Structure prediction request, 235 residues.
Amino acid sequence: MLPSLHQFTTTPLFGVTLTIGAYGVAHRLWLRGGRHPLLTPVLVAIALVVAVLHVAGVGYADYLTGGDLLSFLLGPATVALAVPLHRAGPSIGRMLRPVLMAVLVGSTAAMATTVVVVRLCGGTPQLEATLAPKSATTPIAIVLASSTGGVAALAAVVTVLTGVLGAVVGPGLLRAVGIHDPRVRGLALGVASHGIGTSRALEEDPLAGAFAALAMALSGISTSLLMPGVLALLG
Prediction:
């Protein structure tokens, strides 16, 4: 690597520029591709960033000096989801009870089925604890995996992959089974694929995005409260 290029790649500006640029290219490809699920911007942006880092020979630690700045903005971005929630307040109020029940059942099922599948495949209790919180947001999944004997780094990777898979496959799968109500679609995407699924729901419909944001928040809470009990019950 050239000395000047090396100096640039070790500055925060490199990580910020690469991430924003990759997402901009990915979003344009997604629009030009007719919003095809396989061209979901998050998925394509991840692939572009990985490819650039590999070709340029840049280590993850160097990239993270700028990537961390964008990670910090996840907090304000999450808080900003209160805007569509506020706008959908009347619709949410009328469906609060079924929403709570759906999130509770969905988050419990996500954890329980993961543990059962890992066990049937011969996985260890450590792997069960790592994968169980995969449908919660990444920060919650990391903390839960660490506190229950799992591997935090692997939990983070699997959680992101779960979100991307849900954003890519979820909308088409919901249409295939005849689910077109934006409220139900939002709930499903929020519970199954957390923040990435919520961003996909927002692209579909503001009402779907509001219900996805609510589902993501409630799912994170229920997963945090119920995961130790689910692991103990199935263990």
About this structure: Residues 82-234 form one domain.
